[in-house]
Design goal:
Strand content: 5-15%
Order of helices and strands: HEHEEEH
Largest sheet: 4 strands, parallel
Number of strands: 4
Helix content: 25-40%
Oligomer: single chain
Structural class: alpha/beta
Radius of gyration: 16 Å
Distance between the termini: 37 Å
Number of helices: 3
Low-confidence stretches: none
Amino acid sequence: MDESKQPGQHQQPLSVLGGQQLVSLRSAQQHYNWKNQLGFLIHPKIEINIIPDHLSIAEIGTGTGVWLLDLAKNLHAPVKLGGFDTDISLAPPPQWLPDNITIEALDDYANKVPEHLIQAYDIVHVANIASTIKDNNPGAVIKNVMAML
């Protein structure tokens, strides 16, 4: 491993990531396939219109950020969007993101969620994390997601 590169840091634009480009393309294709099949990004029974003032939505396992970026285009209210992943190297650099989206590294299995994330979100979206569950026990991830609500 090249020691000059830190995990989770953006080293080069997405267009020159080589093998990672295939991962990004597969992620985007999977996102749009699911969206087209389901017909929504947030389940219609979750009435986001009734949440007052500033809605906050987090995504665990954000990867490329495609879900957050698509959601941002489809929301008409002020909303804070936060993306979290153990490795954010596939996400766009911060300067490419809309002002209301942040993406940061987060260890889903940390003993405790960082203080600034506790009860910070109204909705937490979790998808595609089955392969990251340790010892077939999602308890730590569920505990941390619940702490963010």
